[in-house]
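Readers of this paper often ask what the protein records in our data store actually look like. Nothing more is needed to write down the fold, since each code stands for a local backbone conformation. Below, we set out a record of this kind in full and without editing:
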Amino acid sequence: MDLSEIRKRIDEIDGKLLPLFLERMNLSAEVAAYKKAHNLPVLNKGREREILDRVMKESGDMEQFSHRLYTTIFELSRAYQETLNTESSELSKNIEEALKNSPDMFPQSATVACQGVEGAYSQMAADKIFPRGNLMFFKTFEAVFDAVESGLCRFGVVPIENSSNGSVRATYDLLRTKNVKIVKSERLCIRHELLAKPGTKLEDIKEIRSHEQALGQCSEFLKTLGADVKITAVANTAMAAQSVANNDDNTVAAIASHSGCEIYGLVPIKQNIQNSDNNYTRFICISKNTEIYPGANRISLVLECEHRPGTLYQILAKLAALEIDILKLESCPIVGHDFEFMFFFEISANVKDPKTISMLESLKRDCRKLIFLGNYSEN
């Protein structure tokens, strides 16, 4: 047969496959109804294994591909059954309450907690999110979270990820342990400068201070200075600039933003010293309560799974079957459990979509622990 004849035969077979697939999915709906009536779980691993064993025996040399085909069919069937059998839990009720009570517009003014001092990148991000915000500065990320959790501040702004130096682990740890939610995120283009007192030259510098993230983002520049220059990590880039301004030693410099010049009377010895010109940091805005504003298109979750083969795959398969895009997936060790991990997920979804609620309820049932961190938009 020539190619056109082969394609014609494929079309004929596809014409038979689709009605059979739809009929199978309709039967899955009947199965879902029976399981709901008899309080049975959606997943029946024994039944799936029994079908796969039969398919493998009948597939000959195509067993690998047949296995994948039927695995996909099972994933689609389970996803469909779960959308039909979703029952509202405390999670769904909290989300519904948040949708009902959240204002139509994100606030432009509020009391906002930031880590560091004036001139910090967190302050710049907070100013972008809240043009008329009243900022309160704290020494640590944990203090920012505590200020929000206690109600001292309406919101908090903290960095969570840098495009060239990765995640801010302290923020992820606090999201996991503190009772706060993400309500918005903002990307900020980061341009680092080496700042020192007027009259200081590059060859005079014996110590450079900055936040560990900024030091990592400028690692290539720091390598050019040689081993004799001391590198000191401090709590914040702006605090580094402040400490240089308050230091009588002209051999100390800071890696910070240009605003450190205006605020602390420093001068730039070298500009744009970050490794990449495409250097962005994501900042999240946190609140005490779940708030979901119009345009929310990103969901953050913490999932803790059973420590056995295939559990992460089952989560990924569930998301794939519902065509939900995974934006970020990161593992984090569980303290006190040897080589067991929890996972931070960011997905592209909105809780107003019924399939999203079904997916969240399904994950809550299947995982040892689920923390819904929020549904929000990112600028």
